[in-house]
Amino acid sequence: MLFREDFLAGLRKGKLSTTFRRWIQPRVKPGTRMRTPIGVVEVLSVEPIMEIEVTSTDAVNAGYTDKSELMKDLGSIADGQLYRIRLKYGGEDPRVQLRKDADLSDEDFEAIKKKLKGYEREGQWTRKVLKLIEKNEAVLAEKLAGKMGLEKYPFKRRVRQLKELGLTESLDIGYRLSPRGKAYLKRLG
Prior knowledge:
This protein is of the alpha+beta class. It folds into two domains: 5-92, Archaeosine Trna-guanine Transglycosylase, Chain: A, domain 4, CATH 2.30.130; 95-188, Arc Repressor Mutant, subunit A (Orthogonal Bundle). Helix content is 45%, strand content 20%. The strands form two sheets. The protein has a four-stranded antiparallel β-sheet. Strands 5-6 form a two-stranded antiparallel sheet. α7 (141-147) packs across α8 (152-164).
């Protein structure tokens, strides 16, 4: 799910708690945890609702001044069932702390190594990508992908896998190795 920046800011402060979507079928379920620019957002409930059931309080909790403003915004999307989704701020993205952790134990190192080996069904690429990012910080993904003979999106998918382990971090343009990623590469030799 995509959220407006002002909505996320309100959610983080605890001022907003509800969003609405029109879907053919729900795309999230209670308990879903999503990473967003503010951290983790957790889905508390997903409820099919008729427009007549939407209250002024719902609209305010979704960041609108009133129900008519909310309905006008939703009016541009005609297909599907209307859902009221209750949300809460679930805390910082756990990858932020993970990527700062450069003090790798033997167990940490081996766990990362094992996980990366599992990613390499398509050939050995993890070390190449880490080295490429190390030498090309803040370079467009498309340019990095070209250096590996890949299209942009398959390359970005690989970098996201590394990011999940706290080894890389995204910049406004391109990527850089995290302290954890630098420590892993150094230890790898």
